[in-house]
Structures are given as C-alpha cells and as structure tokens.
Amino acid sequence: MASVRNKVNPLLCNIPYVLTWRRFGFRTICSGRLGFAPSTSPSMVDADTPVAGTKVLETFSEEFEIGSRKITLETGKIARFANGSVVLAMEETKVLSTVASSKGDAVRDFLPLTVDYQEKQFAQGVIPTTYMRREGAPKERELLCGRLIDRPIRPLFPSGFYHEVQVMASVLSSDGKQDPDIMAANASSAALMLSDVPWGGPIGVIRIGRISGQFVVNPSMDELSISDLNLVYACTRDKTLMIDVQAREISEKDLEAALRLAHPEAVKYLDPQIRLAAKAGKQKKEYMLSMVSEKTFEKIQNLAKEPIEAVFTDPTYGKFERGEALEKITQDVKRALEEEGDDEGLKILPKTVDTVRKQVVRRRIISEGLRVDGRRLDEVRPLYCETGNLPVLHGSALFSRGDTQVLCTVTLGAPGDAQRLDSLVGPSSKRFMLHYSFPPFCTNEVGKRTGLNRREVGHGTLAEKALLAVLPPEDDFPYTVRINSEVMASDGSTSMATVCGGSMALMDSGIPLREHVAGLSVGLVSEVDPSTGEIKDYRILTDILGLEDHLGDMDFKIAGTRNGVTAIQLDIKPAGIPLDIICECLGPALKGRLQILEHMEREISSPRIQDDRYSPRLVTLKYSNDALRRLIGPVGALKRKIEDETGARISVSDGTLTIVAKNQSVMEKAQEKVDFIIGREIEIGGVYKGIVVSVKEYGAFVEFNGGQQGLLHISELSHDPVSRVSDVVSLGQQLSLMCIGQDVRGNIKLSLKATLPRPKSKTDISTDEPVAPASQEVNVWAAIEDVSNEQEKQGATSAPETNDSTLKSATPAVLIRSAAECDEEEKNYGLNSKGDNGSQSASKSDKKTRIPSSLSESGFSSRNAKKSKRGKDAILDLISDDESEQKHTSEVGQHSQNGSYKDDATSETPMSANKLKLGMRVTAKVHQIRALGLVLDLGGGIRGMYRFEPGAKRDFDVGDELPVRCSSFSTKGIPVLSLVKEE
Q1: pLDDT band with cut points at 50, 70 and 90 for residue 705
Q2: Nearest to 108 by CA among 351, 363, 394
Q3: What is the DSSP string of 786-821?
Q4: Which strands make up the sheet holding 649-653, listed edge to edge?
Q5: Which of 662, 705, 665, 699 shows the shortest CA–CA distance to 687?
Q6: Residue 983, helix vs strand vs coil
Q7: C-beta atoms surrounding 677 within 10 Å
Q8: How far lies 550's CA from each of 357, 544, 555, 557, in Å?
Q9: How far apart are CA 590 and CA 256, in angstroms?
C-alpha cells in the first residue's frame, strides 16, 4: 500500500503548466503534491476494523405534511455549537435557523433581540454579479423577511427578560418553487424551542393564497403569481400573533374566511416542534429577570399617578405639550426619590413611570370610553388633503390626519428604470417603488441619517403593497413609477398616511388608478384576568395616536379601497390576541376608511391632465434588432451618450424601443438623436430633421432618418424666389424638412418651404399671369415648333411690358413676368432699380435674389416627360468646353438640369455672382453655338443661355457681343437671356 501511495503517477508528468495548481493561483497543498486514495476499495476492508477519524453525528428529525407539501425538521447535523439549530426542508428548498444568547447580565430595560435573514447566491447555484463577487449589505427583501420572523416571536419572551438574543436564518438551497420566508420563520421557532432560552412558543406560520375563488394552503411561487391574495399568518395554539396581507381588493368577509382557514393550518406546525424539542431540546436555563418590587412600584405610583391623570384628562394638550408635561412629572418623582435616597427606585424609574402611564390611559379608555385627545373610540382625526402643491413634479400630494403629516411625490421613468431584484425567488424586477423616509425632525429629535432602516423599509413596503393593487396593467401603462414619502410630522400611523398621500399623488400625476386607496390603524386596549391570562374586557380604537400605539396592545394597519382590502399589517405586544377580536376590528376599519376616502375624492377624484411643460412623455417604437444594435453602440456607449445629452431614459427590448422624457422638449431631443442613428418609417407629410451633406446648383442632398438621403430641390427651399441654393442652405446645416413624395426611381423628395408659413404680404402670382401647372415644367430647350404651338394654345403667354424697346424684342421661350413687374418685385425686397440700362444693386438689408415660386415649382410638360433623364446630359454638354458639340444636336426637347446662376452685376462693372438680377440688361459674348441656341459668357465666370426664336437671326460667331436682358432663371438656376434690339 505504501508503495502504491508513494508511486509517482505518470500522468502528472505530462500535465501542461497552464493546467497546474500554481498557474491558477491556488495555495500549495501538501507540498505541492496531489494525494491519491489507496487502490484498495473501502468494500474490501473488514467491517469490524475501526476506521480512524470517523465521527457519527446523532441527528433527530420530524416529518409532517401541510397543504400537500412534505416538511422535514432536522437537528444535530449542522451548527452543533449553536444554542439551537434546525434545518427545515420543503421539497428541495432548505433553510437553516440558529439561536444564540449572551451569558452576561447587562443592565437594560428592553429586549435586545436581533433577527437576521440571509439569501446567498450559492443557494441557487449562482455567483454574485457584484465587483467583489460577494454578497453586500442586506437587501430589502432580507430586511423584510427578518421583520417577518421578528414580529411573531418577540411577544413570547417573558417580561423582564433583557438578555441579548440573536436569531439567524440562512437559505442553504432553493429550487425556486417555495418562498423561504415562511420556512425560516418556522425553523426559527423550532430553534428557539431547542435552545435553553426561555420562550413561550412554539408558533406556526402559514401562507394562504386564493386562485379563482379557492383558497390554497402553502402555495408555490407559480401559484402565488396568479393569486389575488397573499396572506401570511402566525399564531400559537389559540391566539393570533402576526398578520401580513397583500390582496387585490378582497372583501372583509372573504378575508375573515381566509384568516379562519389559516389558523388551524398554522397550528399543524406546533406538534412536530414540540416532539423534536422533547428528543433533542436543552433544559431551559434560569435567566435573571429584571423585575420591580411591589413596594418600589407602589411608591412611584403614588407619586406619579394623580399628575399623570391630570395631563391625560386634558384634551387641549398637543403631542409635544403632553410629552413635556409627562417629562416634568418624571423629574419631580426623581427628585423625591433622590431626597429619600431610594437607589433601587431611581434605577427603574423610567420603566415604572411608563407602566403607570399605561395603567392610567387604559383604565380611562375601558371604564369611561375616553381617549387621550378627547375623541370617541371610532372617531377619525381631522383631515387635510392637498394635491399639486409642487407643480414642477410629475405628481405631488400633502396629506394630514391630526398631527401626522406626509408629503408624497411621484416620478415617472422608463421601463429600464425598474428596480432589479436579486432574490432567490420571485420576479427579477419591479416597476413600482415606494420609498418611505422618517427623518428625525418629524418628531423634533436630533438624529443621524444612515442606510436602509428596517422600520422605513417595512413601512414603505406596506404602503407599496396597498397601492400596487390599483395600478393599471403594464401593457396599458408601461412607465416605471416611484413614490417618495417624506414624513413631515409624526403622531401615529405614518405608513397609512403614506397610502393616502401616495394615492392622491398618483392621481395628480395622471396615472389612471382604478380606485383611491386609503388606510388607517386600529388599536386595542384590553383588560386581562391575572389568574387565567384571558381577556375580560376590551375596547377597539379607530385611528390611534402614537401614544395609544405605545400604551395599547395592538397596531392593526388596514388599507384598501371602497371595494375591499389591499394590504394589512398586524403587530401586537401581548402574547397573542384571540382571532375573534381581530376579525371584529375589520368593521371599524372599513367605516373609518370610507370617511377618509370621501375627503380624498373631494380633493381629486380622477387622474389629472398634466401641464405640457412638466408632464412626462413616453414613446414606444418598433425597430429591427439590427437597428437597435446600432443605437446601443459598443458596450451601450451610444445609448448612454444620448441619455446623458438629453436627460431622457431609453429602454431596449426585443424589437421595441421605449423613450421616456420628463417633458416634451426632452422627448424631441431624444427622438431627434435616435432618428439620426436608426431612423423612422418615412411617411409622406412627415417632418424629419436632417443635415445637409451636399449642395448642388439644382438643390441640396440631405441625410436624415438614420442615414437615408433625400433631395431638397431649389424650388422647395422657400415660398420666395430663390436664385441660388447656397443662399438658403449650407453644408452641414441642420434642417426640419417635410417628405413630399418620391420620384419614379424611388428617390425621396423633401421640402423646406412646406414647413414654413406662407408670407401674408405677398400677392398670389396666379392672379397676375398664366402659370404652367405645378405638375408640368416649361421645357427651355424644346423644339421651336412645340413652343409655338403651346403659345398659340395659351394665347398671350407673357404680360405686356411698359418699355417700348422690350416690346420690339422677341418673346422668350419661358413664361416670365415683365421687367417692370420684376422691378416692382425687387422693390418689395428692398432692391433699387437704376432705369433702362438695367443696372441694379442689392440693398444691405437683403442681398438675396428671389424668383417667383410659380417658376421654381414648375415640373415636366406632359409631352416631354419621358425625356427628363436625357436633359441633364444636354445641359452638361451645353456648358462644357469640349469639342463634342454635335453630340446632342438631335436631342430636341431636352430640359436643362444643371448650371450655376449668379446674383446681380451692372453693365459698368465686371459681372459677379451677386449682381445679376431679373430684367437686367448686360452685354454678353457668344461662348458657344448650339443647334437650339447660344451659350453666352456674361463675365465673371457666369454663363447663360439664349434660345433661337422663330424668324430671328441665327447667324452668330463666337466672340460676338450681344445686348441681352435677363428674362428668367431656369429651375436649376441658369440665367435665361433674350436679345434686346437697339433703337
């Protein structure tokens, strides 16, 4: 055997370095050598031979069944050093609960009980996603589950037991089918039963659901997701200890039926715990209890009782006035005990005075039916409701009941703003959040703001459950909603005031709630028979004060609508209250709730229509996944950049893009950036924002809608005449354009003037002169016969001119207005005419030359529409200097589609791009001779075209100087010239 153990395994010599332990950073174990088991099988060893190092663990277990679920309690195998340790298993989910207590006898006047609940990710086979790959601070769910365990076990510790106790519950494994919170509560009860800590248990904790009107005991997570009731009930054999409810407007009658079903089911947990404690439990230890001697108590009572009664019988005292008066009484008793030298009385003075206060208040309520503030037992404190007090916010409300005041605000966000949950069970996120804050100033105290507070988390979750039932479905209202509840003043039941304020704030934000939700707290004052411990007499109090909560037996918070209950939380102080009394409290709670709902509905009864300046906006768009990937960018960088620049929130799912903005301006900015990246479906009449990427003589190309390009024709730049594209748009300029259609090749046509208002001062050109229909375009280079026929059909095609020399000139082939009308048009734009010599100059206020929109909007003629494709080639040939002049001679009827036009120049100065105007007379040189006309050089690099006229001279030579007039501009900005005959 030794030889086998010491023999080097030949396989280890061939392991690459990258697969060795050192390569992976593991610590060296056994001097870096891996040990191997002996080759002898354990089955070959003699059964009688003792095996060294073997330890037999004595375990005890109990099995039972509740609600068709098999449950096992086991102790003795895990956490043996703990005072009490139990593993509770339900199917494949296991929870460990342990109990430990301190041995010292510290001087204190309260029970320092700590309950911790942990859900580590190993329980579901997952490594945490945090940076350190470890679980961090307790999550909200862990705090809530800890409170769920604490609330039923705390009342069962004996009075005067002030030793430190810690209960820790940890989930060992989870199959996702069962919620471990109920299992942890029952395991903690069993662990306390096994420990030596004095405790009045056991308790049973059960969950009840309702599916299609049928109650379900211990529902699974799948069943709970379709249930309209989530009831957690804890009890001893004959009394109720804790109730926690989330429901969808369940009636009081059905709720009572669920409670009466839950009690016998919860009792089934008790006997297995008792049997397990009998087999493996420890003997209860004799702990020293902090008790008050009868003599000392009577002395303090005689000193303080009458002054305390005087304070409590005066209803004019407010909360702080009453507190100051009671504190003064305590100081007076303290001085009396100091004079007597009673050290024992001084040690227990605060606790004893508090006991005297409790006796006085409880006796007056039971015997006289009088409360501290003078109200009847079923009377609700005065109410004050106000909504919209912070108009900049999405929604806000201020709710006051008595001295309790709460400010609630609503913020709406994108679906991506939903809170991510790392729980072992349940949904992975939630879109409705209510955050409750209890600052120190609300009770006029000095304190420090820390992290998550158990009380704040518990109260906020209760109000969240109450309001969740009336929210619209996610399909109808996809926003993420956050309510902030800030307690401004506290005198009892701030969590229920949060429910009322939160409901009004939701209405104020425009969320379509089904019903208003209100809540209030019901208290109990009872008189107990000392011999039997049974309740002899009791009184139910509606809408309790903070003092009545402290001095009473119960804080029963009930929230709901007119139709039913949506949330309940019951906390008690004695060791249980009969279920009959609990069910009796539902009636007064409903009566008080209806009174509060009436006040809330008078303030706001329907969702408010928000001001456009502050109301949030949500847009859901459909895109392909490829387009969404372009939007997100590498590692989401592009999406985050848009959010940072605009302030909007963007959520991306499969084929869906959701944008949420706090107002309309932010929404427009976000949509604009999204459109630049992935675009939208193009619709005729839709307005899009784009960037000019190319400027041509005939228009500009604009990139918009996620990389698509469209043509902004010169005729669509403005309602006013435009002679040059660059005067209106420039490279890189951002424009809002309307899609006006597509051409036969599918190219997108855009319009700038369609987004601009038409000037009111301009006269309608169609009333002054005949204009070619918008669907046609005058063909400048059409055949002479065609033009003559068209002119004969249309009659007089040009308006009469006032200048005689102009009358003697030939009629141009383009339909234009007379020079006088053009001069008048120029005067309207601030241009000064210099007479018949044609010299004009632009005014400083307006240097742009404009042509009538009726000319710039002309289209192809019906006769020559089929030749449009060849027109561009013809004009390119016209303005070129090559020798291929005969190439397009046969292309009669082509339309000029290219060229450049310049602004006005005078005959005395060299021509420049800013000087050419309609009606201007200049001297031009013949640059080229074409079959249909001439290309004329106007100087300064500007060239125009002259078309041969019927019966006119056609014998010209290159270089001839001709007196011409600028008759018009073609649709592409080329100057169209006519000869001026000299007198």
Answers
A1: confident
A2: 351
A3: HHHHHHHHH---SPPPS-HHHHHSPPPSS----HHH
A4: 617-622, 656-661, 649-653
A5: 705
A6: coil
A7: 18
A8: 10, 10, 9, 14
A9: 13
Q: Which residue has tokens 């709730």?
A: 593
Nearest to 254 by CA among 289, 288, 228: 228
Distance from chain centroid for Cα 761? 49
Show the 3-state SS of 519-549: EEEEEEEEEECCCCCCEEEEEEEECCCHHHH
For residue 898, what are the CA distances in angstroms to 69, 524, 702?
Answer: 86, 94, 18
**CA-CA-CA-CA torsion sign (45, 48, 50, 54):** positive
Length of the chain in terms of residues written: 983
In sequence order, what DSSP letters do the residues of 30-44 get, joined into one string?
A: STT------SS-GGG
What six digits make up the tokens of 550?
């402290």
285: its two tokens? 């230890």
The set of residues, in sequence order, having a beta carbon less than 8 Å from that of 832 and lying 6+ positions away, is 840, 841, 843
**With contact defined as beta carbons under 8 Å apart, do 23 and 17 qualify?**
yes
DSSP state of 745: T
Instruction: Identify whether the C-beta of residue 958 lies closer than 8 Å to the C-beta of residue 702.
Output: no
Residue 756's pLDDT is 86
SS3 call for 5: helix
Q: Is the pLDDT of residue 826 over 90?
A: no
Q: 578: buried, middle or exposed (CB in 10 Å: 19+, 13-18, 0-12)?
A: middle
Are 522 and 584 within 8 A, CB to CB? no
Which residues, at least 6 apart from 352, have a Cβ–Cβ distance to it below 8 Å? 292, 296, 297, 300, 301, 345
Return the amino acid letter for 220: S
Give tens-digit pLDDT for 537-558. 999 999 999 888 988 999 999 9
Give strand pairing partners of 969: 975
**What H or E segment, with its residue span, contains residue 166?**
strand 165-173
State the DSSP H helix or E strand holding residue 947, giving kind and residue range, or none if neither: strand 942-947
Name the strand (E) or helix (H) holding 457. helix 454-468
Q: Determine how many CB atoms are found less than 10 A away from the CB of residue 570.
A: 23
Cβ-Cβ contacts under 8 Å for 106 (sequence gap 6 or more): 162, 163, 164
Cα(171)–Cα(123) distance, rounded to whole angstroms?
A: 6
Is the Cβ–Cβ distance between 854 and 836 less than 8 Å? no
Question: Can you list the alpha helix ranges (DSSP code H) found in 138-251?
Answer: 140-153, 180-194, 221-225
Please, are residues 517 and 559 in contact by the beta-carbon 8 Å criterion?
yes
As a whole number of angstroms, the distance between CA 852 and CA 817 comes to 9
The token pair that represents 845 in the structure block: 């206020």
Convert the pLDDT of each residue in 216-267 to its tens digit: 999 999 999 999 999 999 999 999 999 999 999 999 999 999 999 999 999 9
